[in-house]
Request: fold
Amino acid sequence: MTRLRKMMLEELQRRNYSENTIRHYIRTVEEFARHFHCSPDRLGSRHIREYQAELIRKGRSPGTVTQRLAALRFFYVKTLKKNWSVVETPYPKKAFRLPTILSQEEVERLIDAASAPFHHTVLMTLYATGARNSELTNLKVTDVDSQRMVIHIRGGKGRKDRDVMLSKKLLEELREHWRRLRKKPRVWLFPGQKDHCGDKPINPKTVWHACRQAAKRAAIRKSLHPHTLRHCFATHLYEAGTDLRNIQLLLGHRDLEETTIYLHVSKRRFDATVSPLDTLKLKDRSPQDR
Reply:
């Protein structure tokens, strides 16, 4: 795999793919080769179809299958310069699923249930900024602009930078977080390794575990993860009257259509709509008839 890995890495870097995408694409090709115990340049369309069918049998989501196929397509088309048949390897249709949304009271419980002050700050930052997990872990000390009260999120999805508002509460929390750190970080706002004094950023898995542990301690039974707080950020903004275009910019969505999903989960829509049942003049039933 060494020669092929180097070739694929160079092609990905030439096209300015993000570090996360590069890591995912290379890992996918490695898993594909291990599945068939064979170098991937000796595998063909039949093996790709078998691999796709195996992923579906294992219950992988349509999104996961699509990502794996995209990685393999890049490898064969861009690295090996081979043909790729879209007809033989169709992308599965994605199911439309609404995101899990917590009420503001549930968000309060979640943040308050954090098992450590560091986790408390991380969860507050996720909710206050609407940042993705990968964006939060790569925040730098210099990204916090207390003069303009904004946080700069750099190199987001699609390598796009954007600014989000800096909450006064979050600024106070970040200053307290800074005072708690035994060794002041030079670069990363949330440094990783032991005692959070390392020269590398916090691992995204740490954020994931902090979120799940806090949910368990807060007795929140909804299925949630760090991205849930991003959905809550957008939904609660919309319910407070923020227009969708502004929310789109804060989230870094390329298309406004991505942002319209929050129309489906917002209480604002339900509060403005009366159930037809409430307009019926039904007869009262006696307790015996109930």
Remarks:
- The first helix runs from residue 2 to 14.
- Strands lie at 144-145, 150-153, 162-165.
- The chain has a mean pLDDT of 90.
